[in-house]
Each structure stands twice: as C-alpha cells, then as structure tokens.
Design goal:
By secondary structure, this protein is mainly beta. It has a single domain, classed as Rieske [2Fe-2S] iron-sulphur domain (Rieske Iron-sulfur Protein), CATH 2.102.10. About 0% of the residues lie in helices and about 40% in strands. It has a four-stranded antiparallel sheet, with no helix packed on it. Strands 1-10-9 form a three-stranded antiparallel sheet, with no helix packed on it. Strand 5 and strand 6 form a beta hairpin. It is globular.
C-alpha cells in the first residue's frame, strides 16, 4: 500500500528557530527545520503532556526543549535526551515538495 502524505502548510512558514504547528489525524504535531531538513514530532512532552511548541529549539543539535520542565528531545529520532522525560516523542516522516510541507499519515 502506498504511503499517504498530507499537506499541512507552506514550507516558508517553518522558520529555523520557530516550530510550525499542525494537526494530523487529530494529533497535534510540530514541524521544525534544522540542519538540512524538516522534522515532525508530536506536540506533547512525554513527561507531563505539555506542548513542545513553545520550547527553545537548538537547530545545530536538532533538538527541542520542553518549556515546562526542560526535558530535551532529539527531533530526528524523538529520543528523550534529558530528564525528567524518559520516553521518546512520536515522530512522523516529513518532506518538502513544491514549497509545501507534507507529512506521512500513519496507518
């Protein structure tokens, strides 16, 4: 079965230091640009459910810091990098195509 990609917005809306928020199948997500690509993760800290969208982004390390308690997550893999979070955030395949951001809809 072919992957289903959902258009969530224009690529110009994704700034290097500011996440772009969207919803995919009822799940809030953020899209971040760092290094040479785009990354998408669920907009929810696995420590306490806080939204990650307001967190600081380290574009060189490709990580985001939860604004509530400071847990850090790798945007590439979703891995929790520092306490108080120990569980990874959910990641989504993302690509830019014709100036648009497309995210693969999970089955």
């Amino acid at each position: 079965m072919a992957a289903r990609w959902v258009d969530v917005g224009g690529a110009e809306a994704v700034e290097a230091d500011q996440p772009f928020t969207a919803e995919l199948g009822g799940v809030p997500i953020i899209v971040v640009r760092c290094e040479a690509g785009y990354f998408a993760v669920e907009d929810r800290c696995t420590h306490d459910g806080e939204a990650l969208a307001g967190g600081e982004i380290d574009t060189e390390g490709c990580r985001i810091v939860c604004p509530r308690h400071g847990a850090q997550f790798c945007l590439r893999s979703g891995q929790a990098l520092t306490p108080p979070a120990y569980e990874p955030v959910r990641t989504f395949a993302v690509r830019a195509e014709n100036g648009r951001i497309l995210i693969e809809l999970p089955e």
